[in-house]
Amino acid sequence: MSKIVTLGEIMLRLSPAACHCFVQVDSFDVIWGGGEANVAVSCANYGHEAYFVTKLPKHEIGQAAFNALRRYGVDTRFIARGGDRVGIYYCETGASMRPSKVIYDRAHSAIAEADPEDFDFDAIMKDADWFHWSGITPAISDKAAELTRLACQAAKRHGVTVSVDLNFRKKLWTKEKAQSVMRPLMQYVDVCIGNEEDAELCLGFKPDADVEGGNTDAEGYKGIFAAMMKEFGFRYVASTLRESYSATHNGWKAMIYDGKEYYQSKRYDINPIIDRVGGGDSFSGGLIHGLLTMPTMGDALEFAVAASALKQTINGDFNLVSAEEVHALAGGSANGRVQR
Do 306 and 330 form a contact (C-beta atoms < 8 A)? Predict the structure, then answer.
């Protein structure tokens, strides 16, 4: 299997049990997660040598984050230790017409204040096959944006395939700041992943598709994919297409373009959604695995969509399904019968 490196922030997620509101509970469930950490866990589940790169404090909460990654087979040897705090986010799970809510408490986290001297990116990227990052990481801080740039440059020096999940977060930065940072970073990217909002806010491309109205036909994305590929030279552009009927009922599919052909996946009706947080990350992890191991981009996309559909039935940020379970769903087994 392949060596896959991801860079980002793992956070302490504090969530009310079930679908309770923040204001009505006296305790929170502890869950670990964060964009690129979620991707690393998925890749480890599929048998890859998955490395997560970040900085964590030396105290016990930092160690708890460290242990959460190790539990699921992620290699932590390149994690720097130091700094004062682990980023926190509060997540309230919505239901029906009530949306989920996220509140960040992540300013001045260890990775947000990390310095280039904390990491030897040439050593990290040596013999790697794939490097993945998301738009969340450079949004954390200017220092984290510089780390992202240095990691991308090291990946290119070592001939590593680079993927990005654009992942715009309006609570972290403006679209103007996002575009000023993200567009220059695209020169290092081979595989660009993002939904229609991400592409518009991070890169300035808007698809001709009424996503809010449920009109997510692939035709509306062809022009934007071609324009993105022409401007940035991506090898692949992929987008998830979420039809949001309620907080607990979504349609889910995706499409991919390689400069010649467009491929649209089968559609999944996810009802009820248990936890949609990490759905996009599980798509990225599935796509990375698929593009590394499968004969066609269509096969890779079907695996990624099935993996991310399954993730949204699992509580927490991490996707905990095996490759065999994903293949079973992608191959048509969606009845949910007990496996005996």
Answer: yes
Q: Measured between alpha carbons, how far is 98 from 66 in angstroms, rounded to an integer?
A: 34
What is the spatial distance between Cα 179 and Cα 98, in angstroms, rounded to a whole number?
31
- Residue 146 CA, chain-centre distance (Å), reads 20
HSE toward the beta carbon, residue 270, CA cutoff 13 A: 29
How many other C-beta atoms are found inside a 10 Å radius of the C-beta of residue 59?
Answer: 13
Q: What percent of the chain has pLDDT over 70?
A: 94
Q: Is the pLDDT of residue 334 over 80?
A: no
Tokens 């698929």 belong to 290
Give the position of tokens 């979420």: 242
The token pair that represents 216 in the structure block: 């997510």
User: Residue 56: phi, psi to the nearest 5?
Assistant: -130, 145
- Tokens describing residue 38: 């979620």
The DSSP 8-state label assigned to residue 18 in this structure reads T
pLDDT category at 319 given cuts 50, 70, 90 is very high
String of b and e for 301-326 (b: at least 16 CB within 10 Å)? bbbbbbbbbbbbebebbbbebebebb
Please report, for residues 29, 100, 259, 326, 328, the alpha-carbon distance to residue 321 in angstroms, rounded to integers and kept in the order given: 21, 23, 31, 7, 11
**Alpha-carbon gap, residue 294 to 277, rounded angstroms:** 26
User: How does strand 3-7 pair with strand 11-15?
Assistant: unpaired
| Residue 202: pLDDT over 60 | yes
Phi, psi of 135 (to 5 degrees): -65, -10
List beta partners, residue 244: 250
Please identify which residue in the block is written with the tokens 């087979």. Answer: 73
What average pLDDT does the structure give for the chain? 93
Phi, psi for residue 229 in degrees, rounded to 5: -65, -40
DSSP state of 290: H
Residue 56: which residues within 8 A CB-CB, separation 6 or more? 10, 62, 63, 65, 66, 79, 80, 81, 83, 86, 110, 111
Rounded CA-CA distance 284/178 in Å is 20
Tokens representing 299 are: 């096969």
